[in-house]
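Q: May I have one protein plus its fold?
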Amino acid sequence: MTDHESALATAAAVRRGEVTPEQSVRTALDRMADTGARLNAFIAVHERAAIDTARWLARTSCDLPLAGVPIAVKDNIAVAGEPMTAGSKILAGRRAKQDADVVRRLREAGAVVVGGANMHEFAWGGTSVNPHYGTVGNPWDTGRIAGGSSGGSAAAVAARCVPLALGTDTGGSVRFPAALTGTVALRPTLGRVPTGGVFPLAYTMDTVGPMTRTVADNSALFGVLAGGAAVPPVPPRPDVGGLRLVTADGQWLDDVQPAVARAVQETLDGLVGDGAEHRHVRLEHLAHHLTAGRTLILAEAAAVHERWLAERPEDYGADVRTLLVAGTSVSARDYLQAQRYRRLLREEVVALLAGADALVTPMLPFTATPIGREDVETAPGRTEDRTTAMLRFALIASLTGLPALSVPCGADEAGLPIGVQLIGKPHDEATLYRIGACVEDAARMHERSPVL
């Protein structure tokens, strides 16, 4: 596994006998011990188990789609016999008794789990600033946030420690760090990837998502996670001719940093130049999506943590504890109103996409912010709370349950990555990958590496 080798190329080399699974895994472990440690990307390294698995693969069968490919797994996803802290003090010292469903599928495909990735505590935050296991650094500037809550997964991929990682996404937790670190992440159609063995944040919105350096790797990993779903391979010459793209009022380039607006507009213009069609629309039910999304997550997370919040409040980080306490005050009326709004928004967006192939938005209105800064300038002269700004584009997919792909589309003047979000029809991840491959081909961000 070389610095620029994809997961698919690594697996092909293993199948041809050019590289052994153990060589592939040891390369990843070496990088994790060096670069991964400097970024604080991992809570646990599974060195012994990973080497044993690699040797077992070499003795049995390497003829598997992800044979010998190392993968990082977010630390709220169960890996049998290994720590599963969910980035918390409360779960410190616990070990998973069995694999999560997605980890079992990874093993069946020949992938090798090499470590538990660092994360925002209990997956509830967009920075991966963790008071218990340390802050994850952004490989492009270690003084800036990597995003969250799957920050360790994104940092490990961006820094070339591993070609593949798993994260979880409730309100944007694979897509935020992907945009901030220049990696690719998919929030699948809700329910398409199993969540058995994953510590929950909000049951009705949680999903597991693949995180990779390239669109082709992401598509391959998603196919494994979805149980061998028939996802067409990404073509070497991607084509968007005839695809119908839409943008929406309130979900476009208002109040975003100039560099983000420029990169996303150029991305859309490039897709249209390659043969895609575009129109701008108005979504009537966008006005309350931030309130609805927060209400649902607050209430559902508070229910998960009710006992610990009562018995061990001091063991939570201050930010997560504040959110949990707020969640205990959500009324049944407010929760049901949020669910009603969620249904109306889904109906509207699904109807819109019946006549289109993807809704295009920026992934975030800003590039990576300095660690510790709680507000962000999203446009000249306009400052917003960072969390509110983060959720603006992400929650539309989280609330509707539709698939959403974050793809790097450029960088700002400081070289910090920018992501574009593609939201698609239910169960049509394949079209998102087709569009994403064109974005990748134009931006070439996957060919760049951060210098640490």
